[in-house]
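Closing statement on the flavin mononucleotide sub-project.
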Amino acid sequence: MKDIFDEVEFGDFKLKSRIVRTGTWETETEEGGFLSPAIYDRYEKIASSWTGLIISEMFVLDHKDRFAPYSSSLNYLGFVKEYKMITDICHNHDVPVLGQLAFFYYDDGDNQKAEANDLTMEGIRKLQAEVIMAAKKFSFAGFDGMQIDMGNNLYLARFINSYFNQRKDDYGGNTENRVRIASEIIKLIKKTIPDFHVSIRINPWDVRKDGMTSEESLKVARELEKAGADSIQLTARTISYLYDGNEKHPFLVYVDKLIGEVDIPVILGGSLRDMKSMNDVLNHSNVEFMSMSKPFVAQADFLADWKKKGEGESICQSCNNCYSKKTSTCFKY
Ligand SMILES: Cc1cc2nc3c(=O)[nH]c(=O)nc-3n(C[C@H](O)[C@H](O)[C@H](O)COP(=O)(O)O)c2cc1C
């Protein structure tokens, strides 16, 4: 019988549990982007309470990004020093931590919002170089790896989606070509920082007419694995509309297929709220790893209670205020 608190291997990491605290912006910065004490407390609580793996909040590439006002920056004065303290907190509890890179817009130098079809070759190389620099910065700050978010409606999700990308060169057309921008990034990161874990976050499908199908998403996953990706986490623009926690998780069929097709860890997440139904999913599917976000916003150390009691349900009511108000503060508790 599988249990969320099994000790498991995740690539080269040994995890204390199957639970991943997924990317969740903190918005707890002070003047100049410096971290407020609340962030250190939050990481201490999460890392000390049986969380298997932590994925940081999103870091954007530059300050003009749509998500910049409520996420963290790689480019403020204290980045390496402060995030080294955060990663030390995680490592003191033997919890690996990945820095998450996610961006919505891309400024290629000529166009602040250059979309997939607008980007010149120089633009593509500039973008790739910036992501590799981000990997190096994460590595300097002690992160065990990074997650490149290519899910939801983020820039790279749009770039690899034929709904947005009609390029006629090697970076458009078939799936392999549309994914090339990311495959090249992953290959180069793995070459430059060999032990650095590179995770990707992708959509299992896209709800737009003529958008990405689940079959194509499987292909994307296989291409990125081939390039060297070490793990895959699922996300989707629509998860909160598709699933209220009572029905079968809408990604289960897809995730079982995906797990059958790749040899790297796959993380399922979204609306997981109680230990019993999570263990049911573990024992009735091939799922090995699960991610949660809002339950950690409602109570950062809830997993310690679940572990002690052998059962538990998050106090999170999924009101989504923490998300829609663009804070990471629970409005109810
Ligand atoms: C306050 C808040 C902040 C979030 N920030 C991020 C983020 O920085 N990066 C990311 O990939 N997803 C982010 N998400 C989405 C979550 O990672 C997750 O996919 C989503 O909340 C569904 O999972 P849940 O039901 O366990 O909350 C955020 C969600 C919330 C509620």
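The chain has a mean pLDDT of 93. With this model delivered, the sub-project is considered complete and its resources will be redirected to Aim 3.
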